């Protein structure tokens, strides 16, 4: 049914937003179009390779707005660029100039200035100016391009007379800082209320959020009353941080069917089942989703939540007290000694078994294919030198010598055929992400199990020595290292049983597992030693081991393996792997399998390709 009100409202909305919008959409340039160029430029000028390039979220700003902007409700939030230890955040779209090339220039300038490293400077506004001063000094060719961009940008800010008198002095200081960043002396408060330059770097939103959480946590710790005895709740739950309502902003007015209604916010926690604090533990036990508040007052009772770790009777058997391993801290640029505890484990409960019936036909095909690659040693006869004398030739020579007509001729035989001097260790990621379903019947861990089975059958058929390990983690003091098959153990039904019995673990602290795998493979005697890593995602754990910290530790562990003469190679099914694996393993140090269902067949073939190319 045609609604006149709705049609008129749509016309009004389009008209108002068109008058309020000062962007040049016909010349708009997006981050998606510039991402590759920005990444190359940022890293070529010295930017950290581990820093991700992402779209910046909008943040609230207070600016003088025209009549049409106030009516349209626009220009209250802006996407401003920022840089922190893990992310270079850039606007998702730039449509500031009527020429697309100038809009592209903003992305280039932001990438170039972000690559400049400066000592600690108090004030982000002064830091933004000093970054451009350093860029202009290091690359004189940039000076003319920067001046052209600023000269084109300042007229778009409007005239000084269009601003309130209280903001005109700030606008003058800001324009002077943009025109001459080398001599700028500007404070953060000098741009409050005026349009922020789109080519400056601003404080990180991520840092602000984390500081709010830390401040809230520390404040709650200081104000927490004496706690009651702790009650353990063995519970898995998903958590998130939520914003609290403000008590002075509780009036809600809205129009519903031409009738005004209002409601008032009261600090009454309905999620607690209207029960006293002593029932908080029972409520938490019933919840599958926990929302963590950052409010300044805390409850009088603490609830301790632990991961649902398996009991000793249901878990794999620990092998020894565990191994202390270092971990790389990129912030201090040093290895932290004995920072992780890695626990080797063996599944003694897995019954021996043959390959599953669904894989038997594929196993026969794989073994037949790889048996053809097994090195064959044959005798080469009539050689001038060799391991043994060829008796038939020797007898002929002796007879000819007695007869007086001996002629020297080749009479040795030797083995022909190269031996594969190769050892391979495969390290499989068994984190909880492998518990996800691929289809209605199979999980990721089931596909990984099938892949390890076919991989093992292939290497057993070709005669190469190999070992299989899996890993997961729950913080640095509990890195689980599952022994599936070591180099000294033959490939039997017992190993097949452990492969079939694989199950998802916890998190992905890959650095410690890589270092232990490097130690194992380093002690092997083969001239070529291949370290394969099979994973489905980024390094992560419950503590600091995520983001850049996890990536840097993994990269350091890969470099340690290469220094030991090993060949590390990563095989992944993560569709976002191209964003971080080149930094960890190099451009040719990984392979992406887009369809995880093809992993079992692709893994043996990929191994064969690696061995032919190395």
**Biggest beta-sheet profile:** 9 strands, mixed
Radius of gyration: 33 Å
Structural class: alpha/beta
The first-to-last residue Cα distance is 69 Å
Binned, the helix content reads 25-40%
Unreliable runs, pLDDT <50, ≥5 residues? Answer: 208-239, 256-266, 268-278, 294-306
- Global outline: elongated
> For the residues shown, what is the average pLDDT?
80
Number of strands: 25
Beta-strand percentage?
15-25%
Output the number of helix runs. Answer: 17
In short:
This protein has 614 residues and is α/β, with parallel strands linked by helices. It has 17 helices and 25 strands.
What does this structure look like?
- With about 625 residues, the protein is α/β, with parallel strands linked by helices.
- Strands 14, 15, 16, 20, 21, 22, 23, 24 and 25 form a 9-stranded mixed beta sheet that branches. Strands 2-6-5 form a 3-stranded mixed beta sheet, with helices on one face.
- Helix 2 runs parallel beside helix 4 (about 100-115) and helix 10 (about 360-370) runs parallel beside helix 12.
- The model is unreliable at about 210-240, about 255-265, about 270-280 and about 295-305 (pLDDT under 50).
- It is about 35% helix and about 20% strand.
- The longest helix has 19 residues, at about 205-225.
- It contains 17 helices and 25 strands.
What key attributes describe this structure?
614 residues, alpha/beta, 9-stranded mixed β-sheet, 3-stranded mixed β-sheet, 17 helices, 20% strand
Topology of this structure?
Elements (H helix, E strand, L loop, with lengths): L3 H17 L8 E2 H14 L7 E4 L2 E3 L6 H6 L4 E3 L2 E2 L3 E4 L2 E2 L5 H15 L9 H15 L1 H14 L11 H15 L25 H19 L8 E3 L3 E5 L9 E5 L2 E5 L16 H7 L2 E5 L10 E3 L10 E2 L4 E7 L4 E13 L13 H12 L6 E6 L4 E2 L1 H13 L8 E5 L5 E8 L14 H19 L2 E9 L5 E7 L7 H8 L9 H13 L5 E8 L11 H17 L3 E6 L8 H5 L4 E3 L6 H15 L1
Parallel strand pairs: 2-6, 8-13, 9-12, 16-22, 20-21, 20-23, 23-24, 24-25
Antiparallel strand pairs: 1-7, 3-4, 5-6, 10-11, 14-16, 15-16, 17-19, 18-19, 21-22
Helix pairs in contact: 2-4, 5-6, 10-12, 12-17, 14-15
